[in-house]
Amino acid sequence: MKLTMAKEIQDIIAKEGIIAVLEIESEQNAVPVAKALLDGGITVIELALRTQAAVPSISLIAKEVPQMYIGIGTIIEPGQAAMVKKYDSVRFGVSPGLNPEIVKEAVAADLPFAPGIATPSELEQAISLGCRAVKLFPAEGMGGLSYLKNINGPYNHLGIKYIPLGGVSVNNLADYAKFSPVLAIGGSWIANKELINAQDWNEITRRAKEAKKIWVDNR
User: Fold this and answer.
1) Which of 22, 25, 13, 17 is nearest to 204 (CA)?
2) Domain of 162?
3) Model's pTM, two decimal places?
4) Using CA atoms, how far apart are residues 192 and 114, in angstroms rounded to an integer?
5) Is 187 contained in some domain?
6) Distance of CA 170 to CAs 18, 138, 156, Å?
7) Does 1 have pLDDT greater than 80?
8) Which listed site, 46, 104, 119, 124, has its alpha carbon 20 to 30 Å from 56?
9) CA 125 to centroid of chain Cα atoms
10) pLDDT digits (tens, 9 = 90+) for 39-95
């Protein structure tokens, strides 16, 4: 069975460790926030398809900040996987939940994909679809690292990798970094929409540096 996310893609994400989750409401902020993250050492983003500015932001970031490894999040509707795959700069996609039809669409579009899971049953369904990298969402809402360790137990021999998102912060990042099945963490606090709308690029860079240091020091 074809994997939904090839190991070489996983390796690139794992090397960086931090995925900044972005909700961009104005296209004019796309390039500055990408540059602010890059200045802080973060080179992977999950650009959420929750706003009208999201799709135009793909091309803007790809052109002006080519060092950024672009992932697309909130892929939850039919046709979205194929749509974003048309952009050569899009490297992977993720969803907050597990919809088998969306996973199949991503595979058909040849878009490396990690669906969201929250329970053992969802994880088994993801595994049956060829997923070996999944998002755990909402990570802290489900019980945090303790829950992740418990859910991973029966499947550890399969080498499943996780991207915890939802409640991950500087307060618990170190613990997640120490758990080897964690591929990377998704962080929305690093460049949340309030900071982006306020154009507080210095604070975003500071948070990026802080998160990257914690990851590197504890990995």
Assistant:
1) 22
2) 7-218
3) 0.97
4) 22
5) yes
6) 12, 16, 26
7) no
8) 104
9) 20
10) 999 999 999 999 999 999 999 999 999 999 999 999 999 999 999 999 999 999 999
Report how far residue 114's alpha carbon sits from residue 7's, in angstroms, rounded to the nearest whole number.
Answer: 12
Distance of CA 159 to the CA centre of its chain: 19
Catalytic residues: 46, 135
d(CA 19, CA 16): 8
In whole angstroms, what is the distance from residue 135 CA to residue 198 CA? Answer: 29
| CATH number for the domain harbouring residue 184 | 3.20.20.70
Q: Could you say which DSSP state residue 115 is in?
A: -
Task: Tell me whether the omega of the peptide bond preceding residue 138 falls within 30 degrees of 0, making it cis.
Answer: yes
Beta bridge partners of 187: 20
In a domain, 2, yes or no: no
How many domains does the chain divide into? 1
Angle among Cα 107, 64, 59 to the nearest 5 degrees reads 40
